[in-house]
Automatic annotation (TrEMBL):
<comment type="function">
    <text>Functions as a peptidoglycan terminase that cleaves nascent peptidoglycan strands endolytically to terminate their elongation.</text>
</comment>
<keyword id="KW-0472">Membrane</keyword>
<dbReference type="GO" id="GO:0005886">
    <property type="term" value="C:plasma membrane"/>
</dbReference>
<keyword id="KW-0961">Cell wall biogenesis/degradation</keyword>
<dbReference type="GO" id="GO:0008932">
    <property type="term" value="F:lytic endotransglycosylase activity"/>
</dbReference>
<dbReference type="InterPro" id="IPR003770">
    <property type="entry name" value="MLTG-like"/>
</dbReference>
<protein>
    <recommendedName>
        <fullName>Endolytic murein transglycosylase</fullName>
        <ecNumber>4.2.2.29</ecNumber>
    </recommendedName>
</protein>
<keyword id="KW-1133">Transmembrane helix</keyword>
<comment type="similarity">
    <text>Belongs to the transglycosylase MltG family.</text>
</comment>
<keyword id="KW-0456">Lyase</keyword>
<feature type="site" description="Important for catalytic activity">
    <location>
        <position position="196"/>
    </location>
</feature>
<dbReference type="Pfam" id="PF02618">
    <property type="entry name" value="YceG"/>
</dbReference>
<dbReference type="GO" id="GO:0009252">
    <property type="term" value="P:peptidoglycan biosynthetic process"/>
</dbReference>
<keyword id="KW-1003">Cell membrane</keyword>
<keyword id="KW-0812">Transmembrane</keyword>
<dbReference type="GO" id="GO:0071555">
    <property type="term" value="P:cell wall organization"/>
</dbReference>
Length: 311
């Protein structure tokens, strides 16, 4: 009963406002924008009309809201995210009451971190990036959010989105064998390869070098692992070599073994390279500023390469 009274009162108010707006020729001068707009659960018709007007999709929010109330169509409006381009008012109301929401898309690129993914999800309205990042880290998702394009419903729970990304990882790696190296160690190695090399050949050669150093108790000395740890400070090892002295489980200059976690979400090619390393006589490698990789069999050769291609 109270709800009906409220609707009647709102209709009366809108009639008065609409009469005034017609009297004074009210029309929004907002520029029309092609937009993805989200109608939230519990949002009333006037709030919805205001949102549409703000994006230039309708000229008069009062007229739009009153029409929807008098026709009773306001009752059929469904929450969701909708894409608008050149629709008229009737087409707009038909779209939002039909519930045919637009699925959002995010694309995870190989090499992106959970922090990058958190910002992607925030941009699509799934929450605050810091809260999303905390959830991703708490579920040990670094390295397992498979790079791909995902369609997401505007009201979809974050847990479901992450589950689909991790399930995609399982699906894409289903045919691979993780008997010689554990799944986690393989993904850690793949994440290093993703950051250290660009071509499949270089990834396999570097995988051979790093596994060989690891098996012989030699420090990996991989810049990208420590850069992952210090990324929030805006510095890199190249800009501040003293960072190599940091006490961190990601500092492979000071600690033996792989970093504590994967350092990014690697591509399938990097995972395969980690599983199929190329055996060579090399023990060292370095990358030039142009991304070209130079290999060395001895430390002396490595120092020569540094002098020739880095300094």
């Amino acid at each position: 009963m109270l709800k009906k009274v409220s609707i009647v009162l709102l209709s009366l108010v809108l009639l008065v406002v609409l009469g005034v707006s017609f009297l004074f020729g009210y029309n929004s001068n907002k520029e029309r924008l092609a937009s993805n707009l989200t109608i939230k659960k519990g949002q009333n018709i006037l709030q919805t009309a205001f949102l549409l007007e703000e994006h230039g999709l309708i000229k008069n929010r009062f007229r739009f809201a009153l029409k929807a109330i008098l026709s009773q169509e306001y009752k059929e409006i469904k929450a969701g995210t909708y894409q608008f381009t050149n629709e008229n008012e009737k087409e707009i109301i038909d779209k939002i009451k039909g519930g045919k929401e637009t699925l959002l898309e995010i694309t995870i690129i190989p090499g992106q971190t959970t922090k990058d993914v958190a910002f992607l999800l925030q941009a699509q309205g799934l929450g605050n990036s810091q809260d999303i990042l905390e959830f991703l880290l708490s579920t040990s998702s670094e390295g397992f959010l498979f790079p791909d394009t995902y369609q997401i419903a505007s009201q979809e729970a974050l847990e479901n989105v992450v589950l689909r990304m991790r399930s995609n990882f399982k699906l894409k790696t289903k045919g691979l064998s993780f008997e010689e190296r554990s799944l986690l160690d393989t993904v850690k190695m793949a994440s290093l390869l993703e950051k250290e090399a660009q071509t499949e050949e270089d990834k396999r050669i570097i995988a051979g070098i790093l596994w060989k150093r690891l098996d012989n108790g030699i420090l990996l000395e991989v810049d990208s692992a420590l850069n992952y740890f210090i990324a929030s400070g805006g510095q890199t090892i190249n800009s501040n070599p003293l960072l190599k002295e940091l006490d961190s489980s990601y500092n492979t200059y000071k600690r033996e073994g792989l970093p504590e976690t994967p350092i990014c979400n690697p591509s399938l090619a990097s995972i395969e390279a980690a599983l199929l390393p190329q055996e060579t006589s090399y023990w060292f490698y370095l990358s030039s500023n142009e991304g070209e990789i130079f290999y060395a069999k001895t430390f002396d050769e490595h120092l020569i390469n540094k002098a020739k291609y880095i300094y």
